[in-house]
Design brief:
The structure is a homodimer.
Chain A lengths: L1 E10 L11 E9 L4 E8 L2 E8 L5 E9 L1 H11 L5 E10 L2 E8 L7 E6 L13 E4 L20
Antiparallel strand pairs in A: 1-5, 1-8, 1-9, 2-3, 2-6, 3-4, 4-5, 6-7, 7-8
Chain lengths: 154, 154
């Protein structure tokens, strides 16, 4: 098991847009239950399945396994809760860390989130000026919750 | 994807008990939703994750992946819906097919089911005399339903 320590923010300007190459991510859920999330993701030509346990503070247990691409495509198209999540991800290095900026499509269009993964809960970090309000503790922003209650419905 | 064609029966006497070596199976569910079952199983020293799509008649899509044993044990103990299923399985060859006889433990003690996997829905087969009533279409007997509504509660 790995432990994922992640903090999430909204963006407050468009400064992120010109940085990093956007990569399309397609992801869906075989379980979006907060105690046992099962996520299927295709990025580029590769697919992974990720299991996540319940978050305690900003930490969460996470296990990741490679999946055959054809199986993952079938899960996204036929088995996963619908609609699946599609988003462009940009990876933007800044002050020793990499920010992942997700620009959502479809029913979540208009939502842009910036995430940083940290080695410990106490780790200090600097924020680029386009990083805005923190939403780590707001469960509406969990990708697994953006299927049943997409941003456009808020 | 494989397609699983399976028929399930109750037993009507104890004739199965002296046949086959009982092996302990421990299995739990990260999702028991009928359209996207995610099962974790430990049998002997090996673990697998199985994804199952919705059944149509007696057929069901099924995908299976090996799992690290330590991960599977952690899923069963901490993440899966509780209580997990524990049962002794006996594999009994008969008339060209192998019957799997599951003797349930814990909250499902008293339940014994015999299953046969077939190459096609139309395949004919002979039944040993300890095989009783067919329950393939009775969803109460799905292992994924025996967690929320165990046999002892019927």
């Amino acid at each position: 098991m790995g432990v994922e320590i992640e903090r999430k923010f909204l963006v407050q300007n468009e400064g992120w847009r010109a940085q990093g190459e956007p990569v399309l991510l397609r992801q869906g859920y075989l379980s979006s239950h907060p105690e046992r999330v099962v996520r299927v993701r295709i990025e580029g030509g590769a697919a992974v399945m990720t299991i996540k346990s319940k978050a305690v503070g900003v930490s969460r247990g996470e296990w990741e396994y490679p999946l055959p691409l054809a199986d993952a495509a079938e899960f996204l198209d036929r088995l996963c809760e619908q609609p699946i999540i599609e988003k462009y991800r940009r990876r933007i290095p800044y002050a020793g860390f990499v920010w992942e900026v997700d620009e959502f499509l479809g029913a979540n269009a208009g939502l842009v989130m910036a995430e940083i993964e940290l080695p410990s809960e106490e780790q200090a970090f600097d924020k680029p000026d386009w990083v805005g309000e923190e939403v780590t503790q707001d469960v509406r922003y969990l990708n697994s919750n953006l299927i049943g209650k997409p941003y456009s419905s808020w």
